[in-house]
Specification:
Layout (H helix, E strand, L loop, with lengths): L1 H22 L6 E5 L8 E4 L13 E8 L2 E9 L11 E10 L3 E28 L5 E9 L13 E10 L2 E25 L3 E10 L3 H25 L1
Antiparallel strand pairs: 1-2, 1-6, 3-4, 4-5, 5-10, 6-9, 6-10, 7-8, 7-9
Helix pairs in contact: 1-2
Length: about 240
């Protein structure tokens, strides 16, 4: 009986380690914004760092800025452990933008430390509301095997995960990218163009299709099995 109970406890411990590894915080995400005028970035925020509007949540960055023609530039990015796992990337980026005139707004979101056991394809999608005529939004994603922050396609180590564009009035579009494997970082970039005074909003995402759900279901299934085994031994 003791041997069976020890086995059940070992199974529970192993399952807990599996889930912890799959959902662990492996790196620090970073989000930045610019209107492309001058050098540098107008907003540059590290997860839980100065300027993060969501300072208590690991894996989520909310940033707000106003610069140039952009009277409101607000964006939220999520990564591990909020969306995805170390073995199943899922970067999500949403935005709201208001401009007083024509201009471009670039928002980049990056996260490092991903490790994929086997090659997987990615899905990159964009939904946007672009009310003003002439407004556009382009969303792109890259995987960098050198694990650099903001690895954006400028190196042979980068794999394009897809690029999608929408024009006014907006809508939804998706494409495939990859495959990717091994270790690296994931970076997404949103470029919004307003032809004049306007507002826009939307969401872009790059992820492994059903990847995170598969890992979570497997881990929870193992946990349920181990709990059942332990209870059975305790009542025997």
């Amino acid at each position: 009986m003791n041997m069976r109970m020890n086995f059940a406890k070992t199974l529970m411990a192993g399952t807990a380690l599996f889930l912890a590894g799959a959902m662990s915080v492996h790196a620090t995400a970073r989000l930045r914004m610019t209107d492309g005028v001058g050098s540098g970035y107008d907003v540059d925020v590290t997860d839980n760092g100065a300027g993060d509007g969501d300072p208590l949540t690991v894996g989520s960055i909310s940033a707000v800025g106003h610069f140039g023609v952009w009277t409101v530039a607000s964006s939220t990015g999520t990564a591990v452990p909020i969306t995805g796992f170390t073995g199943s990337p899922d970067l999500d980026l949403s935005w709201i933008a208001v401009s007083s005139g024509a201009g471009n707004l670039t928002i980049q979101f990056t996260d490092t430390g991903y490790s994929l056991a086997s090659a997987v394809n990615m899905i990159t999608s964009l939904s946007a509301s672009l009310a003003a005529v002439g407004s556009t939004a382009t969303f792109s994603a890259w995987f960098d095997t050198e694990n650099n922050q903001f690895g954006d396609g400028g190196s042979v180590a980068n794999v394009n995960l897809g690029s999608v564009s929408l024009s006014s009035p907006g809508g939804f579009i998706t494409t495939g990218g990859g495959p990717i494997s091994g270790s690296g970082s994931v970076t997404v970039e949103l470029v919004v163009h307003h032809e004049g005074a306007a507002n826009s909003s939307g969401n872009g995402e790059t992820k492994v299709p059903e990847g995170g759900s598969t890992v979570a279901m497997l881990g929870l299934g193992l946990l349920g099995l181990s709990v059942f085994a332990l209870r059975r031994q305790q009542t025997a």
